[in-house]
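User: Please predict the structure of the protein below. I'd like the answer in structure-token form so I can feed it into my own downstream comparison script.

Assistant: Understood. Taking the following sequence of 362 residues as input:
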Amino acid sequence: MLEFDALLAHMVREDASDMILKTGGHPSIRIDGTIKYMCDEPVAAEYTHGVVMRILDEDLYERFMRDGEVDAVFVLDGVGRFRVNVYRQNGEIGMVFRYIKDQVPTFEELMLPVDQLKRLAGMKRGMILATGVAGSGKSTSLASIVEHINRNYGRHVITIEDPIEFVYTDKLSAISQREIGLDSRSFSQALKHVVRQSPDVILIGEMRDKETMDAAINAAETGHLVLSTLHTINAVQTVERIISLYPPHQHELVRLQLAMVLEGVMSLRLLPRVDGRGRVPAVEMMINTPSIKEALIEGRTKEIEKFVEEGSYYGSQTFNQSLRGLYDAGVISYDDAIAASDRPEELALAIRGISRGSTRIA
């Protein structure tokens, strides 16, 4: 079995996003979304226990023993910084390491909608959400927004994370990073006091419950720019998930609040590049427009996708529009584009140059 440090160094050299170590399994890394074994020898229980004892401090180890899972950050000098989730599986120890790069990528490097994100990052108030499945790039995308603010505006940014991932160096902004368990007891505790810490921008690592959502909406209403993530797959599902956190008698109020504060929803899906050089994001971008505000207020959430599709003037685009653009540019394959689409039949027709109204697309 390779030494633990050597495994992490190999992971970084291979530009892998994740490394999986679990008792009885083969050490493996994820490259461009695909799992690959690092060696044929299975991991012994003594090995994983030794790694856990090295990467967890006493408090985190006690939490792991009590709860069966815990998040942590591990820094290996000369190699890099890693977000780690330690968990139990079949009564044994498992771990997933996520490599966090030293430099926060720019919008251009991430191939995100540059003009739209620059405009959103420049806002003084409101809520911006990054959504998608685990590993789709939500945290990195929000980090790129924070770093853009850091380089271009004199603002106080407070991040509330579990754990802290990207570490920022103050440039034009002052950035305070708070870690749950280390700097505050819980998200709700941190959010209860955050508005007294003179923030201009608040990044919440993840919206996990109604209490967190309440605090985020209230902060956006009182003149702050709030950034966060949700595990939803598109703009419509994002809106409906937020509303569903509340009892029915509050839905009308929540829709009104969202109409006023939800400035943008960026939903992400990573697809393999056709040239084999990594992955590229397909991005649905919902920019809040007068039509979307009206649909939210009136409860016509299912119509939001139509307004996103028609909102190119404002910078909106659907997944199908993003996928078609990537396919037309020769970046992704036809099969991958169709597989990633929520409406594959319509995408197939659009690629062939036929719109839903059976008229040729210019």
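That's the full token string. The chain has two domains: 4-100, 107-317.
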